[in-house]
User: Fold this.
Amino acid sequence: MAVSQPQITAEDVAVTLAVRQDLGEANEAAVIAEFLERVGTTIDARVDARVAARVKPQRSQHSHQLPFFSLVFGIPITAIASSQGLAGIAAAWGGIAAINLADALRR
Assistant:
């Protein structure tokens, strides 16, 4: 779903120029400052949208890697830890769970 971004149109510029002429030199600085504020807000919104579009795919792609590899490497780790009995298996999987929890909380 695309979110519309604020835009400065030619009509906005024309209105600003008309207001500037109507109000005269005494208010010229205020009219220009208000217009530049709107331009700055528009640019900020565009930059925020572009940054958000680039960050989201990277996070979602990374989010499934650690749990997947934890399960893959958990099998041989379980085999090795089983030589210590149930306590060894519990310690191994407790460590795997702690690593995954720390990674999830980091994001």
